[in-house]
Amino acid sequence: MSANVLLEFKDAVKRYGDTTVVDGISFTVAPGEFFTLLGPSGCGKTTTLRMIAGLEMPDGGEITLQGRTLAAPARGIYVPIDKRNMGMVFQSYAIWPHLTVFENVAFPLRVRGEPKASLRKRVLDALEVVGLSGYENRGSTELSGGQQQRVALARAIVYTPALLLLDEPLSNLDVKLREQMRLELHALHKRLNLAVVYVTHDQSEALALSDRIAVVNKGKLEQVGTPSEVYEHPLTRFVGDFLGRTIILKGTMHKDGSESIVDIQGAGRVLVNGDAGFGDGTEVRILSRPEDISLLGMGEIVPNQVVGKVEHVAYMGDHLEYTIEAAGRTLILPSGKRDNHPVGASVRLVFDPACVTALSQ
Amino acid sequence: MSTVTIPTPASSWPKMRGFRLAELGVLLFFCIVMALPILFMLIGSFNINPPGQPQVFGFDNWIRAFSDPQTLNALWMSFLFSIVRLIPSLTLAVIVAWLIARTDMPGGNTVEFLCWFAYFVPDFPLTLAWMLLLDPHYGFLNSMAMHLPFVTGPLFNPYSFWGIVFVHLGTGGIWLNVMLLTPVFRRLGASLEEAARVSGANTFTTLWRITFPVLSPMIIAIAVLSFIKGLESFNTELLLGLPARIYVYGTRIYDYLRQEPPAYGEATALGSVFLLVLFFLAFFYRRYLQGKKKFTVVTGSGYSTLRVKLGKWRYVAIGAFITWFLFMMVLPLTFLVIGSFMRRYGFFNISNPFTLSHWQNLFGDPLFIGSLTNSLIIASTTAILGIMIYSIVGYLLASKKLLFPALLEFFCWLPWVIPGILMSLGLLWIFLSTPLRGVLYGTVWGIALALTIHDSPVSTQAFKSAFMQLGPDLEEAARVSGASWRYTYRRILLPLVGPIAATVGMLNFGSALTSISTPVLLYSAESRPLSILLLEYSFTGEIERAAALGLLITFIICVMMLIGRGLGLRLTGPSREEAKPAAN
Question: Which of these, A260, B269, B319, B330, is most buried using a 10 Å CB contact count?
Answer without folding.
Answer: B269
